Amino acid sequence: VFKGQPVRNSTDGLTTTLWFRGAEAAVANAYGAATAQMVSYFTGLYGLAPSANLTVIETSDGAPNGYAAPGMIFMSPAAIGKEVNAAVLSNQVARQWWEVEVSPINRNHMWMENGMALYSEALWTEHEKGASALEQKMKDLSVTALTVDNVPLIQTARMEDYSPEYWALSADKGAVVVQMLRSTMGDEKFFKALKAFLQQNAWKSATTEDFRKAAEAVMGEELRYFFIQWVESNGAPEFKLEYTIFRTQKGFRVQGKISQDLDTFRMPVDLKIETEGNPEEKRVEVMGTSSEFSVDTFGKPKKVTIDPNNKVLRMSPQMRVEVAIRKGEQLVEVSEFAEALKEYQRALDTQKNSSMAHYRVAQVFFLQNNYQSAANEFRETLNGDLQPKWLEVWAHIYLGKIFDISGQRERAVNEYTQAQRTRDNTQGAQDEVAKDLRTPYKTASKERI
Fold first, then answer.
1. For residues 107 and 105, what is the distance between their CA atoms, to the nearest angstrom?
2. 208-219 helix and 174-185 helix, angle to the nearest 10 degrees
3. What integer best gives the mean pLDDT of the chain?
4. Kind plus residue range of the DSSP H or E element containing 382
5. pLDDT per residue over 313-333, tens digit each?
6. What is the mean pLDDT of residues 247-256?
7. How far, in Å, CA of 191 to CA of 123, rounded?
8. Cβ of 224: how many Cβ atoms within 10 Å?
9. Is the distance from CB of 223 to CB of 184 less than 8 angstroms?
10. Is the pLDDT of residue 352 over 60?
11. Percentage of residues of the chain with pLDDT beyond 90
12. 151 burial class (0-12, 13-18, 19+ CB within 10 angstroms)?
């Protein structure tokens, strides 16, 4: 129950009303300003919002991170945090267009709502932090998207509501497909198509076909092949590249072929040829299982890279490792520990020194109070590739906790001190270290994963 008055924030000519209580009240104004900036930004991309002046309401502990309603956004205390959570907020602001203004006709078309909201979150990241931040975000989304490889996007209704698989398909894969459509159409036509689709379908329930027709009308050509590949079919290609370099009268020629195993595949794919001079880029229309290409260069070619900016959702040996780890994480979320361990093992079979896979195995053992096995795996984490870097600080923290639990305070303090020396504060690591250095760690009912 709220007592007192809401905070009203005026920014960019928009008024946001915020009902925050307790500690979260301190960030209400910052949230108001951020909300208005996001509404202004998305209005530029998508046209006028159904409601420009939004009300942001804090829910209670344990509620979903965020959800949207006409003119309203609800956020949980955990999602609000101590500073603006731009990811959750931008996703919910975008839903004023991609849920409130236009909604999918049924659950099979949920990618237009969840995928576009998540892609809007990525667009806000690009707007705030630049193209490389968008690229990193899309890479993360691609890993999750590839955890569901047996159900096409257009069959999302087969997934259990709000399960990890439901979100991986409708949100992550949806967002990645939208990014590929942008790459295929080019920015100008892509954003024009989004605006046209929203205008044509305002206050209606829309289908994927409505979306495709709006894109085709702006593009001036058929995009059916794109939707067959990415929305109506499942699977992702794994490209193989073969090429030969010839000398010509004017310089050099790279001739080769791109092969992959999806028979119906058709997609424009970028090639980058690094030479002794300026790099050359060429877009190749990859069709079927094998497509040939020829590129002339002035300088001598040194290296040919396919899809250098990771614009196509595709498999690779490294991606298999990351996808197996992500599948394991999803299984841990629903307490399927034995199945999760199988996925992590799959990752380790491909890449023995994957610190992330060892770390996730260690966490499962830790959750199951199997401390000796957990300690072994945290040690393996430290001996691996340490990708990403934050694994180092948290492996030391967990080893410290294990020594505390087993009554070896001196060894625990040694691990916490090593964690402190990293100066890495990912996920509040240094706060955790300070707490455990003050008071020996005792087992808690639930550990962070």
1. 7
2. 20
3. 94
4. helix 371-383
5. 999 888 999 999 999 999 998
6. 93
7. 12
8. 13
9. yes
10. yes
11. 87
12. middle
